[in-house]
Specification:
Blueprint: H1 5-8, E1 25-30, E2 34-38, H2 46-60, H3 64-76, E3 81-83, E4 86-88, H4 91-97, H5 101-107, E5 110-114, E6 124-125, E7 148-157, E8 167-173, E9 185-189, E10 205-208, E11 222-228, H6 247-254, E12 260-267, E13 281-287, H7 292-303, E14 304-305, E15 314-321, H8 330-339, E16 344-350, H9 364-370, H10 372-380, E17 384-389, H11 393-407, H12 412-421, E18 425-429
Parallel strand pairs: 6-14, 13-15, 13-17, 15-16, 17-18
Antiparallel strand pairs: 1-2, 1-5, 3-4, 7-8, 7-12, 8-11, 9-10, 9-12
Helix pairs in contact: 2-3, 9-11
Bound molecules: flavin-adenine dinucleotide (FAD).
The site of flavin-adenine dinucleotide (FAD) has 21 residues, from strand 10, strand 11 and helix 6.
Catalytic activity: 2 reduced [2Fe-2S]-[ferredoxin] + NADP(+) + H(+) = 2 oxidized [2Fe-2S]-[ferredoxin] + NADPH
Protein name: Ferredoxin--NADP reductase, chloroplastic
Subcellular location: Plastid, Chloroplast
């Protein structure tokens, strides 16, 4: 389903096409008689014109051909129309209307949701543009002793049934009070008592922010996290022991729209997207939820219309997960591949489905090795390289890079210290 508070709260939802696609239009029926048209991301298509044509023709008893002209006119204007004294409005307007969870629920009793593959790739306008103004990133605006109380907007499982474990996309409403930049993290303080310090709250857990500074609704009021539920299996019996499951990840994945959540931060500078050169190359390497900051980068590079940052370089994502069902945000990334083939590359390593050239499991370092010549050339030309995900990913990757460097007659240690010195090397593993 879509990453939208409104569709999360929907009681009835019918999807046509790819359910997980973000390239969709959503027609909402708002009781009692108003209709709202969401055109959140991309511009109009033939199918949208037909649907609007049908709705207008039947509601106003007009000839379809006349209604079609009216539809095109409306859609070309500002995606907004008054109807039975209630407005039809774009998703952003609807988001403003439904900025509280209670309102979102009220407006969403009946929803007809249609996924439509859009033909055009026009970018989404974002606001407030003042979020571009500061020269330094926001840092530690809220601390553990003085955390910010935000609200959960939606929690959505984003992996398929055959994925080992569960990963959720969680949208948090901060109402514009906890601004951040792409690549930063939020801290979350789960409710309850710290078992190691009776009477004291739990320690803060950090989560990479998976949205751009404008959030998934493009209005600067939300932040999204990509959280894997930490589950404990007894090594002897192989059975799950819920008493040892991860506290914060389970709290986040189990939370419901409207729940309160204590946030600290934002924190971190190492994964900020360097924007001084809009034509730079960014090589992004992730395992699992390590893809979170890259989702933010890629939305900024390819989905949003940011007046002061027009990307013309290359973004190359390497994502390692267990199997196809574990792929995260695959629809978004595939759309960028289709729309920006000269600026985006995407390589996946599915360890439980694919074999590397030696017949072993395909890990992300095997993909790096496959393209090592190109990667080394790009690094020599100033590319930035990022690593995010589980700590365990780094030794295998470093060994591969070292071996490739030696095969090329280069010293990896010298190369690495040069990359660090040039600020091309960005690592955030946990
Ligand atoms: P905890 O309660 O802290 O437990 C930790 C582990 O110990 C769990 O696996 C748990 O099952 C196990 N455990 C608990 N009790 C016992 C016991 N008695 N015996 C043995 N084992 C036990 N995570 C994400 O999912 N997404 C992100 O984007 C993300 N970004 C991060 C960014 C940074 C910079 C950092 C530092 C970490 C990030 N993390 C991210 C990891 C995250 O901060 C948490 O560490 C993770 O969610 C686990 O926290 P938890 O509270 O669920 O588990």
């Amino acid at each position: 389903m879509s990453h939208s508070a409104v569709s999360q709260a929907a009681a009835v939802s019918v999807s046509i096409g790819n359910e997980r696609s973000l390239t969709r239009s959503v027609f909402k029926v708002i009781p009692p008689f108003s209709l709202s048209l969401q055109l959140p991301i991309f511009s109009i298509t033939f199918l949208e014109i037909c649907l609007l044509d049908f709705l207008i023709a039947s509601e106003f008893d007009l000839k379809p051909s006349f209604a079609c002209v009216v539809s095109i006119f409306i859609l070309q204007q500002n995606n907004s129309i008054s109807f039975n004294t209630k407005p039809w409005s774009s998703s952003l307007a609807l988001t403003q209307k439904t900025s509280t969870i209670r309102d979102a629920k009220r407006y969403s009793n009946t929803t007809i949701c249609m996924s439509v593959q859009q033909a055009s790739s026009s970018k989404v306008n974002v606001s407030p543009i003042e979020l571009e103004d500061p020269t330094d990133p926001p840092l530690n605006l809220y601390k553990p002793k003085d955390s910010y109380t935000a609200k959960i907007v939606s929690v959505e499982r984003v992996v398929g049934p055959k994925a080992p474990g569960e990963t959720c996309h969680i949208v948090i409403d901060h109402d514009g009070n906890l601004p951040y930049w792409e690549g930063q993290s939020y801290g979350v303080i789960p409710p309850g008592e710290n078992p190691k310090k009776p009477g004291a709250p739990h320690n803060v857990r950090l989560y990479s922010i998976a949205s751009t500074r404008y959030g998934d609704f493009f209005d600067g009021k939300t932040a999204s996290l990509c959280v894997r539920r930490a589950v404990y299996y007894d090594p002897e019996t192989g059975k799950e022991d819920p008493s040892k499951n991860g506290v914060c990840s389970n709290f986040l994945c189990d939370s419901k729209p409207g729940d309160k959540i204590q946030i600290t931060g934002p924190s971190g500078k190492v994964m900020l997207l360097p924007e001084n050169d809009p034509n730079a190359t960014h090589i992004m390497i992730a395992t699992g939820t390590g893809v979170a900051p890259y989702r933010g980068y890629l939305r900024r590079l390819f989905m949003e219309n940011v007046p002061n940052y027009k990307f013309g370089g290359l973004a190359w994502l390497f994502l390692g997960v267990a199997n196809t069902d574990s792929l995260l945000y695959d629809d978004e990334f595939s759309k960028y591949l289709k729309d920006h083939p000269d600026n985006f590359r995407f390589d996946k390593a599915l360890s439980r489905e694919e074999k590397n050239k030696k017949g072993g499991k395909m890990y992300v370092q095997d993909k790096i090795e496959e393209y090592s010549d190109e990667i080394f050339k790009l690094l020599d030309n100033g590319a930035h390289i990022y690593f995010c995900g589980l700590k365990g990913m780094m030794p295998g990757i470093q060994d591969t890079l070292k071996r490739v460097a030696e095969e090329r007659g280069e010293s990896w240690d010298a190369k690495l210290s040069q990359l660090r010195k040039n600020k091309q090397w960005h690592v955030e593993v946990y």
